[in-house]
Design goal:
heterotrimer; A alpha/beta; B alpha/beta; C alpha/beta; A: 5-stranded parallel β-sheet; B: Fumarate Reductase Iron-sulfur Protein, Chain B, domain 2; Rossmann fold; 6-stranded parallel β-sheet; about 50% helix; globular
Chain lengths: ~190, ~450, ~240
């Protein structure tokens, strides 16, 4: 069995010492973590959006990317929008999705990332197949840095989660930043109280 | 072919070398700018280094903890002693499910194990989904960088390639356009894939799950559409817990591309509903490196590529000049472990300037390891006899003040030697440089006179 | 209190004026020093080529010649880095700490130990500083651009005490010049390309003089400059500090 062989090799190779783990009492903090979050989000090509502007935002997206048809929303608030939802039973169903509106669980000020956890109401793939992503985030959930995030995070019994920082992007062609690689072409965040 | 020969070929194209140098330097500058915004940057590097030291000295315990927790989460864990077993394990999983179409997100480990040709030979279509990886897959060549695999190519070359492979517009090499075409092409591949293979950035022991970082979202599309996810990891990818994970995630993207974090940092802690998740833990020589005191710290590498971006030799010679799957300083440190004879020139492909060591987010003593390799290679007989003899003679001369005087006499003779005898093809120094003129009198003589005159 | 002066082999043979400038500086500041005539080299060429056993013998010779001095001064960052960082490995049976702690590169000595305030020399030229890698990253004579630490530069601080000097800034202030000992011939193409890029950076910012703490890097740059018949000149920092035009 390779397992035993590998573990044996490691046991024979490693040098015993009492190196302990360092304390992790570090991490940048901000006077106003909400402002810092917004700045970070901007730096990763994400957009801030007021709840009231949602309809206009969708119009602006249509203006830029062409007409849209399907929008699914999984936020507790009722939102006004001119589009219709699709049935998403299998992961592949999400391929037709134009806009997905979901809730984020935490925002992180130092990098503009938002924590999304294993969705129950829709397939994971929807987060990445949708052309555009809108995330509702409670202001109170914004933390300064990743240390704070992981200290309070509880992954028990959770199979999946992702930190999303802005829309998908690539710079693989001659270092030119292009927004909209494989995942969503845009990401907007609606901060709510 | 050794590095120097391939490098001198690369550098013949002066314009291209400058372009390549500047492209990589741009990444280094982005790394500098973003690390400037983190007041605790150096402290963070120190913590990362300490965590890795701790993990490296307790690796077996952490791997067992990781495995136990992963199994508890419903993940199937496999172990592979080498690349061959790794490839076979992947194939067996695919075969059991009659998979013929696979999408893969970037993984240096599968490059290291040459998984693609192995699977292709068995009739399985493997599509690399990272844009840069897809480009070089189309070109049938290895990556030239571990983070930006197609950094050696100009957009016009990619435009022509896409014209041939994806039927794009003739002469259109706009990056926005080419990326959009690749998006459409790869969406189809994602949707028809029957399994997804990913690398692993971090394996969290306490959680029994893995974290994969991408900017394009290809790892998530590749794993969340098809029902089978195979994650391949080198056994050094372990971090103890989620708190330690924070340290590395804060360093990784900032060091790599100057981003505060990658766009997607996905935590795969268990299989999807109705899906299967496999993790393959691969040794492939790592346990041997662990046993080498002078080199084991290289196992701390988180594959950010910062040492590659800053390396003035890499920037002027390109990734393919190294002839190993990982180029630059970290590649030159790792490669000789696998094949000393083949990669013997790599530890000499450095001025030992130390910039690599300074940018390394986990503080690997890269330039000291390169120096150590030179010593090992020399001891093992991997040094040109002429070079060895020269060093031997130099050693003898410098060890004796009288002989040193004689050597100095010969140095002086340079002054009356005709130019054609000094500047010839065997004297590499004189190809583009003048040889310093030996002084009329040495410092020793000058100082003696100076003392007398006092 | 006696200082032992170490003048590296290539300075002895090719750049004696750098050694003499060092002597003048030490005399000017009234430092009591001796120059042991038996000295040859620190052993770095062999060590960096991997020829450890050849290097070991030379290192031993150096050790015996210098261990009894109170302080050792050398106008080369690279050689001092060799003594401080590689001798412990080359001479494992010797206690290197006393030797390495009292060995100083010239700039280090002048800024830290003798705390010089005024140099009373004038040098009306545009000078670019070449940060040699060993001086910078091993001896930490300045803050390297990779590190996020408070910025400092001992070489520049010292040069600024010279009257009428104009120190220019560079685009890549601490990129390697490509000398690298054996690297300069082993990877000749890359070595020269790196050197040329450094020279261009200095020229772009109108330097007329390139200076530094390591004559070996400057020798490499000078070789390129002379072949190209460029008007640039190289000067070791000791030469500027004694006002040699």
């Amino acid at each position: 069995m390779s397992r035993e062989e590998i573990l044996n090799r490691i046991k024979q190779s490693k040098t015993e010492n009492n190196l302990s783990l360092p304390s992790l009492d570090i991490g940048i903090t901000y006077d106003d973590s909400i402002i810092a979050f917004c700045e970070s989000l901007k730096s990763v090509a994400g957009e801030m959006l007021e709840e009231a502007d949602l309809e206009n935002y969708i119009k602006a997206l249509e203006h830029k990317y062409g007409a849209m048809k399907f929008l699914n929303t999984y936020v507790s608030k009722e939102i006004n929008n001119p589009l219709i939802p699709i049935q998403m039973e299998s992961p592949h169903d999400a391929k037709r999705l134009d806009i997905l509106v979901i809730e984020g669980l935490n925002g992180i000020a130092e990098n503009g990332a938002i924590w999304i956890e294993e969705p129950i109401l829709y397939p994971r793939s929807a987060i990445f197949l949708t052309q555009h992503l809108i995330i509702f985030l409670k202001k109170t959930t914004i933390l300064n840095n990743l240390h704070e995030f992981y200290q309070q995070a509880n992954f028990h019994e959770k199979n999946y989660g992702t930190l999303i920082s802005g829309p998908s992007k690539t710079a693989d062609v001659e270092q030119c930043l292009v927004i909209g690689a494989h995942g969503s072409r845009s990401l907007a965040v609606v901060l709510i109280d | 072919m050794n590095h120097a020969v391939k490098a001198s070929k690369f550098i013949e194209d002066i314009e291209r070398t400058k372009w390549h140098n500047d492209a990589l330097w741009f990444l280094r500058q982005k790394r500098d700018r973003i690390s400037d915004t983190i007041p605790e940057w150096e402290d963070l590097r120190e913590k990362a280094s300490l965590i890795k030291d701790h993990v490296i000295s307790n690796l077996d315990e952490y791997l067992i903890e990781f495995e136990n927790n992963a199994i508890r989460n419903g993940i199937k864990v496999h172990w592979a002693i080498d690349g061959e077993e790794h490839n076979r394990t992947v194939y067996d999983i695919l075969k059991n499910h009659n998979v013929t179409k696979v999408v893969k997100s970037k993984s240096m480990l599968t490059e290291e194990c040459h998984l693609n040709p192995f699977l292709e030979e068995k009739g399985i279509e493997v599509v690399d989904t990272d844009l840069g990886e897809r480009i070089i897959q189309f070109r049938n060549e290895p990556p030239s960088h571990i983070v930006v695999p197609a950094i050696h190519l100009k957009k016009e070359e990619i435009g022509e390639l896409f014209e041939e492979k994806l039927n794009t517009e003739k002469g259109n090499s706009d990056p926005q356009y080419l990326t959009e075409e690749a998006r459409q092409h790869l969406r189809e591949k994602f949707l028809e894939a029957e399994a997804g293979i990913t690398g692993v950035n971090f394996a969290v022991a306490s959680e029994g799950g893995v974290v994969v970082c991408t900017n394009e979202g290809n790892a998530d599309l590749g794993t969340n559409l098809p029902p089978i996810h195979i994650a391949c990891m080198g056994l050094e990818k372990i971090v103890p817990g989620k708190e330690e994970l924070a340290v590395f995630l804060r360093l990784l993207a900032r060091s790599a591309t100057g981003q505060p974090i990658t766009t997607y940092t996905s935590h795969f802690f268990g299989p999807r509903k109705d899906g299967e998740m496999h993790i393959i833990i691969v040794d492939n020589g790592r346990s041997k490196i662990l046993g080498e005191e002078d080199f084991k710290k290289s196992l701390a590498c988180i594959r950010c590529g910062a040492c590659i971006n800053t390396c003035p030799i890499y920037r002027r010679s390109g990734g393919h000049s190294y002839g190993y799957v990982i180029p630059g300083p970290i590649g030159s440190v790792l490669a000789p472990h696998y094949n000393m004879k083949k990669h013997q020139s790599l530890p000499f492909a450095s001025t030992l300037c130390g910039s690599c060591t300074n940018v390394c987010p986990v503080k690997i003593d890269l330039h000291h390891q390169l120096l150590k390799w030179r010593e090992v290679l020399t001891q093992q007989g991997f040094i040109k006899p002429s070079k060895k003899l020269m060093m031997k003679l130099m050693g003898i001369a410098l060890n004796s003040s009288t002989l040193y005087g004689i050597a100095a006499f010969f140095a002086k003779s340079l002054r009356w030697m005709p130019r054609f005898m000094i500047y010839h093809s065997l004297n590499k120094w004189g190809n583009q440089r003048e040889i310093p003129e030996p002084a009329k009198e040495s410092f020793k003589t000058a100082f003696k006179k100076h003392k007398k005159s006092k | 209190m006696t200082v032992g002066l170490f003048i590296p082999c290539y300075i002895d043979q090719f750049y004696p004026q750098v050694g003499m400038a060092t002597v003048k500086l030490l005399e000017k500041f009234g430092i009591d020093f001796e120059y042991p005539f038996e000295q040859t080299c620190c052993g770095q060429p062999m060590a960096n080529s991997g020829c450890t056993s050849d290097a070991k013998k030379v290192a031993e010779k150096f050790y015996n010649e210098f261990i009894n001095y109170d302080q050792i001064i050398c106008p080369s960052g690279s050689c001092v880095a060799m003594i401080k960082h590689q001798y412990p490995h080359l001479l494992p049976d010797k206690d290197i700490k006393p030797l390495s702690e009292k060995t100083y590169e010239l700039v280090e000595f002048l800024t830290e130990i003798s705390e010089i305030n005024q140099l009373e020399v004038s040098y009306p030229h545009k000078v670019g500083i070449h940060q040699s890698c060993h001086g910078l990253r091993e001896l930490k004579l300045a803050s390297a651009t990779e590190l996020r630490i408070d910025s400092y530069n001992k070489v520049e601080t010292l040069l600024k005490k010279v009257k009428d000097i104009e120190i220019i800034s560079l685009d890549r202030s601490d990129e390697c010049c490509g000398f690298g000992g054996m690297f300069s011939t082993y990877e000749e193409a890359i070595s020269c390309s790196m050197g040329n890029d450094r020279i261009q950076d200095h020229l772009k910012h109108q330097a007329t003089i390139i200076t530094g703490v390591d004559m070996s890097c400057l020798m490499h740059l000078e070789g390129l400059i002379k072949r190209q018949k460029s008007p640039l000149q190289v000067k070791h920092i000791a030469e500027i500090l004694v006002g040699e035009q």
